Amino acid sequence: MDLTTSPKGQEILAKLQVFFDEHIYPNEQAYAEQLHHAENRFAVMPLMDELKDKAKAAGLWNLFVQEDHAEYCEHGGLSFLDYAPICELMGRVLWSPEVFNCNAPDTGNMEVFMNFGTKEQKEKWLKPLLNGEIRSSYAMTEPQVASSDATNVQLSIVQEGDEWVLNGRKWFITGAMNERTKIFIVMGKSDPNNESRHLQQTQVLVPKDTAGLKIIRPLTTMGYDDAPIGHAELVFENVRVPVENVLAGPGRGFEIAQSRLAPGRMHHCMRLIGIAQRSLELACQRVENRSTFGRKLSKHQSIREEISRCFSEIEMARLLVLKTCKTIDEKGPMASTDMIAATKTTVPLMVQTIIDRCMQMHGAGGLTEDYCMAEGFNYARWCRQADGPDQVHQMALGKQIITRYAG
Amino acid sequence: MDLTTSPKGQEILAKLQVFFDEHIYPNEQAYAEQLHHAENRFAVMPLMDELKDKAKAAGLWNLFVQEDHAEYCEHGGLSFLDYAPICELMGRVLWSPEVFNCNAPDTGNMEVFMNFGTKEQKEKWLKPLLNGEIRSSYAMTEPQVASSDATNVQLSIVQEGDEWVLNGRKWFITGAMNERTKIFIVMGKSDPNNESRHLQQTQVLVPKDTAGLKIIRPLTTMGYDDAPIGHAELVFENVRVPVENVLAGPGRGFEIAQSRLAPGRMHHCMRLIGIAQRSLELACQRVENRSTFGRKLSKHQSIREEISRCFSEIEMARLLVLKTCKTIDEKGPMASTDMIAATKTTVPLMVQTIIDRCMQMHGAGGLTEDYCMAEGFNYARWCRQADGPDQVHQMALGKQIITRYAG
Amino acid sequence: MDLTTSPKGQEILAKLQVFFDEHIYPNEQAYAEQLHHAENRFAVMPLMDELKDKAKAAGLWNLFVQEDHAEYCEHGGLSFLDYAPICELMGRVLWSPEVFNCNAPDTGNMEVFMNFGTKEQKEKWLKPLLNGEIRSSYAMTEPQVASSDATNVQLSIVQEGDEWVLNGRKWFITGAMNERTKIFIVMGKSDPNNESRHLQQTQVLVPKDTAGLKIIRPLTTMGYDDAPIGHAELVFENVRVPVENVLAGPGRGFEIAQSRLAPGRMHHCMRLIGIAQRSLELACQRVENRSTFGRKLSKHQSIREEISRCFSEIEMARLLVLKTCKTIDEKGPMASTDMIAATKTTVPLMVQTIIDRCMQMHGAGGLTEDYCMAEGFNYARWCRQADGPDQVHQMALGKQIITRYAG
Amino acid sequence: MDLTTSPKGQEILAKLQVFFDEHIYPNEQAYAEQLHHAENRFAVMPLMDELKDKAKAAGLWNLFVQEDHAEYCEHGGLSFLDYAPICELMGRVLWSPEVFNCNAPDTGNMEVFMNFGTKEQKEKWLKPLLNGEIRSSYAMTEPQVASSDATNVQLSIVQEGDEWVLNGRKWFITGAMNERTKIFIVMGKSDPNNESRHLQQTQVLVPKDTAGLKIIRPLTTMGYDDAPIGHAELVFENVRVPVENVLAGPGRGFEIAQSRLAPGRMHHCMRLIGIAQRSLELACQRVENRSTFGRKLSKHQSIREEISRCFSEIEMARLLVLKTCKTIDEKGPMASTDMIAATKTTVPLMVQTIIDRCMQMHGAGGLTEDYCMAEGFNYARWCRQADGPDQVHQMALGKQIITRYAG
């Protein structure tokens, strides 16, 4: 298995590294301060817009777009394998993906439009998304049911005349609070009596300003509001959209959901490698500059063992991501579910543990907003719930492996 | 070893349980909303003041006061063992200890005044603290050194005439932001050339409004500001206080610091048992009310194993706390350092793991502010750093055990 | 909860400590050598018989007997709580329980006779067992089914005239190889069509020399044959015993099995605390006497952290055992299943981890037969399977806890 | 990084797979029985010799030989990367490497001869080793010092006239008991006053039948004697060998030791992947064929989670091994110490955990000699001590990583 990235991928990565050194790292404090003093934490940030312009100018735009969607980007598309180190680098600064129009959930939503959108839908929503002019949300999880089983979804979608009428409640809807977010892709149940549990769902497009759609509140995860993107709770009360707002067609909601999640899971893992790697580097720098009881922390045997563990685990996590990427590139996501599940259920937990260790070595400061570790920890933690809790994927993976060896 | 609490302890616990059912649990949502909508998150909260009055009226006040300080309370003092289940119960609602004037860091500060204060200092500061009229802070940790080695403390305390002059920087100063906080106990270095590293430190009292003392900012841990108590960063620039503001005397700072920490560590652990227990109960309720793939979560074998682990670990953690309490009651804290260190380095980490499991079983909602779990997780996490990172206590405990068996 | 042992318990413990110092520890090497050079590793060992005589003479005999069976011993019976530290002490030398007639499976078998035996059965088998003249086995586990679900048991027991006829296979039959073992208690299925799955089983007594009963081979666990007691695989081919050899009566096999296991599980855990404690002491001595890279091992921070963890975990494991013992003493085993399951599923795994750490600190020698650690590790490991794998008990415990908090 | 093996490597692997199907797996029971009934467990086994002849005939001989030693084998040498999956396959049957003359410690010893032997030494010892006619041992570890610090070695080597005189004690000398073992490479201290701690050691060749060399006993690890290769304790009492028996030259002992260990560590890890993979397959088969409480084990959610974890961890461990191999192939072992240390300190512990889980899923049988799991567990466990305990390598790796990021 050849895990070497292509010359194009290497070239973009090199440019991105330069961009980070020139524009991202030097702006971390400014970004934190703008956000801290923002009246509305979900408003457009001036610094972000400046950086987006620079990224576009540098040809570092829409890097997530894959080769089979080459027409939607200027770089001609990148393989999963090529994108992995690029996305890892973005993971080092958690707000940076948006600079390159590479942030969740917009990337996944744009892919949904590419794969399932009509010409009109693409023109209206995909184009401004690709330009970074608007943002979008994907509304799937519901507070009242275990949404990890997608067939549990209860939001009702009923056709009345030439309209879809939506009623229900959603939460953890990433991006919904953001001022620039204009469109929601909403998963609901349109055909609850269909004998196939996987044909009961439909996805429709709901503009954010549609009557009856209320944003109740932003949610926090482990204390973070993840502004300016964030996660919201929504209520749909007799929300009406035209029939042509359906995606792909009635009854295809489950299919779209399945197609959407593989890249998203992998992108999370790639970014988590980046934040884990950065946490390790921060811990190394700290232990070299602190002393207790007359001895540099870096000379304590336990510190060296912890650093050693972090290094080894990051190596393994990164290799797992790369192999899964290569497998997807070669066989497609449907034939790679074992590797995707292995990655999704392994990397976030490992990274959580790695960052926990780095914070502990770093001392109390490591828990604060002065460093990226606590936020990275939170990111790793909620990834164990996002896109289905790990246990659901382990259920499927375990079953598949048992069949493989005892079938 | 008799771990039975006294009749008095049992009686107070029973009254406290009634109080929780009547006044605390029913007010959780109201409290969250008052805090959420507060203009100043560190201001006095009306609800808190109402509850404090009720607690006083119910004889549930200053429950932390020990038997040897009976004169400072109406209940005549409680042993460590008696206080453990009381404090555990308070841990179930993280803001509730203040209702009973039992919150950190005020409890520790009041004990310092009881043990080391002059008559005047007690009259001026201890009395209103015991009445819950003012709040206090304990300023020890510094950003620029590894403060887990207390001899590293750098804030300079110099006598000039009949004044102490303080210069330096502190952070993680719990309570400093709170509007009612009026007095800081500040640890600094007054005699850096003393050949004994443990006689170089002095503690002085600094009223919050003293010129030259600036509160720079509140800090967050893992995303939480822990308002309305919180943790702040402070700067001391030529802060001047009268010589009589010294605590106990020059050079006794280290001694005071040592005496102060044992109860604080134990109180944290007691409360953590409470929040862990409540997280387990919440998880049990959730898994009984959710289904995936046609099966109640509570019937999944993995869920039962996780619940089982949580139960067993809480049992052990609680027993360890109780044994340590009993040991302190019998031998005093100085002869109980092994058990205190074992508790301090074990319980927070166990509780962090327990709550992590409960959040995972609970689904994404468990990560939000709708439940107490994420905040409890954060509390457990920072306790691994508070009062010295676990590693420092393990260093001492390991050394002691090796000497015991190989001396 | 009062975890103080009774004066009688303390007195016996003190005598036992003296006995260990005088007769057990000084004979460890001799025992190892006798066993090593034995032609038949399952034969009677001269040293064991000498020590048994001394133990009897010292009044340290049948210490496992409980208060409600006082007539079977001279000491008047011990509570679970009293027995815990006594049994822990025996756990420090894994072959020592037999010296005091306190070894598995004979203790459990003797209890079965006490509880369910007829006068004749007691006279014939219990009496010589109590005297230490013969040994016994309990034949329950079968190789072809998951025996953790006792209703899976397949060995067929059919009544023909005035005889029971047994056909089937058993394994992990502890003690079966031992030369002195004379009697097997055999669990089988006598009424497979009974609509209650718990009334299909019967237990009958089968003398070891009965025709048709073949001992196929000794089994090893993790490389250990556990001689001279050991674990065997057996075949029953038309084994015939008189009808009066039934225990308690037909259909009561499951009931007997249930009653038998609680004390056995607790005794294992008590002994495991002993071997864990001893491993910790050995590790302490080793790290104090070894140096690497110019520094005593005991001065390495990582060693101190590991020692600290071992100490804390042993404290917790011991407390859990004691609380469970006290609960059984007060409420009986049937009302203590939650605490028994918590102990059985927690302590062996903890002890395995503790000994693993101690072996690692001890260096390669710790893995050898020169120290008791590897054998203790093996003991802890198979206890996770013995008396039902942990998962089965976690299933029941988890269910019980969920019902408690969400019922 | 291209982790694809070469066509030659793939061809040999394919042939080896056929050989395993035809000759190794079908002979596992026969091998176990021959060893079980052997009068001398360290004698030559007839079955082994038959299989060795077949392996030679099939061109599957000395597969460990690397490309830079092509003259010593017929296959022209294999890279580390090519050898990894071959060695992994051998790891599935722990006694199989000897069939292909690929077993430790002979492979490492042969490499020492290739790298440091004189023409005469090669003729006398390397040639019959390469032919599989004799076996060898490498005597480094000593019972009285922490040998993980190689400079601690105490065995005295003194030149008297034209002889070296050796006095000292060694243990864990793998292969020493084996009947065919003829030559020992012995590390000792020849120049204790040399100011460089790394120039004090010398290695000399000691034929097994030299006067004064006594094999005291075989050692067990975790209950296993690892016959017919095994580990022995040795005493050297005025053992005399000619001066020409020195390897490379006086004072070069440390250098030889360093050069020898990298491949050995990697080979252990490769084999451990094989035994972990096989344990997973055995567990899958077992859980598919067992039921408890009316439900196949394979349908329990906890089983699926455990299987899932094993799969993911094996993937990561294997990738780490492959990357390290590729790094060594490209940069040489000296520039790959970070990756080698990461692999050596990670894979054995992971495999130990994986097999532990598989044994638990497999039920009590999994602990016995009927399956390869317990022996694999033991192998993984002692690898954490072999070639230096993990902690020593973590010390070096941690230091290196800290320097990398904070240098």
From TrEMBL, chains A, B, C, D:
Cofactors (names): FAD
Classify the source by domain of life: Bacteria
Q: What InterPro entries does the record point to?
A: Acyl-CoA_dehydrogenase (IPR050741), Acyl-CoA_Oxase/DH_mid-dom (IPR006091), Acyl-CoA_Oxase/DH_mid-dom_sf (IPR046373), AcylCo_DH-like_C (IPR036250), AcylCo_DH/oxidase_C (IPR009075), AcylCoA_DH/ox_N (IPR013786), AcylCoA_DH/ox_N_sf (IPR037069), AcylCoA_DH/oxidase_NM_dom_sf (IPR009100)
- UniProt-listed Pfam families: Acyl-CoA_dh_1, Acyl-CoA_dh_M, Acyl-CoA_dh_N
Q: Which UniProt keywords are listed?
A: FAD, Flavoprotein, Oxidoreductase
Cellular component aspect of the GO annotation: cytoplasm
Its BP terms in the Gene Ontology are: fatty acid beta-oxidation using acyl-CoA dehydrogenase
Q: Where's the Acyl-CoA oxidase/dehydrogenase middle domain?
A: 138-239
Which parts of the sequence belong to the Acyl-CoA dehydrogenase/oxidase C-terminal domain?
251-401
| Domain named Acyl-CoA dehydrogenase/oxidase N-terminal: residues | 10-133
Where would one find coiled-coil regions in this protein? Answer: none
Q: GO: which molecular function terms?
A: acyl-CoA dehydrogenase activity; flavin adenine dinucleotide binding
Family membership, please give it.
Answer: Belongs to the acyl-CoA dehydrogenase family.
* Subunit structure comment from the entry: Homodimer.
- The protein's name is Acyl-CoA dehydrogenase family protein
| Provenance organism | Spongiibacter pelagi
